[in-house]
UniProtKB/TrEMBL annotation:
SUPFAM superfamilies: Homeodomain-like. This is TetR family transcriptional regulator. PROSITE patterns: HTH_TETR_2. Residues 10-70 form the HTH tetR-type domain. One of its GO terms (molecular function) is DNA binding. Keywords: DNA-binding. Residues 33-52 bind DNA.
Length: 201
């Protein structure tokens, strides 16, 4: 009996999530109501509240899911290995985005959900900081700086290409992100310049 209840709970939760994913691709975040979501999932409002406290709580469940998946990706290898072979994690991240492209693009890269994206960035950067410290002998502030740069640059560059919609060559996107994360803009500009002149003050 308990197994049947568990399956019913899982089915209901999946129905809520599927309905939200469909609504999120066509509605602004603040326009999605629990009433409309419940009707689309073929449940009543009371059933919705058995699973989530609010629409924000539902979106936060995706934030936690994405964060856990991203953290699990870079924890499969040491940060040093990830840094030396950045394409491995990017391939897996892009595969995640392609699972439900319209929805994940909306959640991660639209202005409507930018508050939630920042949450993901903060949570992933916190875990990545620890990974960096385990691989390199640098101070915590520098590790935090590197972690925040890497996660923000990766997501903002993906956002640039996905919102632009003219370039869906993921191999090329992956290559550009890897170059930016590893060498900054120098690989794009060095053929035109001898590089920056940094003054010590």
């Amino acid at each position: 009996m308990e197994e049947k209840v568990d399956r019913r709970v899982i089915r209901t939760r999946k129905a809520i999530q599927k309905s939200f994913e469909e609504l999120a691709t066509t509605h602004d975040y603040h326009d999605i109501t629990i009433k409309e979501l419940a009707e689309k999932a073929n449940i009543n409002r009371k059933t919705f509240y058995l699973h989530f406290d609010s629409i924000e709580d539902l979106v936060n469940s995706y934030v936690n899911e994405v964060t856990q998946r991203l953290v699990s990706l870079f924890k499969q290898r040491s940060f040093k290995e990830n840094y030396e072979h950045p394409g491995q994690n990017l391939t897996e991240l892009i595969s995640l985005l392609q699972e439900s492209k319209d929805f994940w693009s909306r959640l991660l890269f639209s202005d409507e959900y930018s508050f939630f994206t920042r949450k993901i960035e903060r949570m992933v950067a916190k875990e990545m900081t620890q990974s960096i410290l385990a691989s390199f002998s640098i101070n915590r502030d520098d590790a935090k700086l590197c972690a925040n740069f890497l996660i923000q640059n990766t997501l903002s560059t993906l956002r640039f290409f996905i919102n632009d919609q003219r370039n869906t060559d993921y191999d090329q996107i992956q290559n550009k992100i890897s170059r930016l994360n590893t060498f900054g803009i120098s690989t794009f500009l060095n053929k035109f310049s001898s590089g920056p002149q940094i003054e010590n003050r």
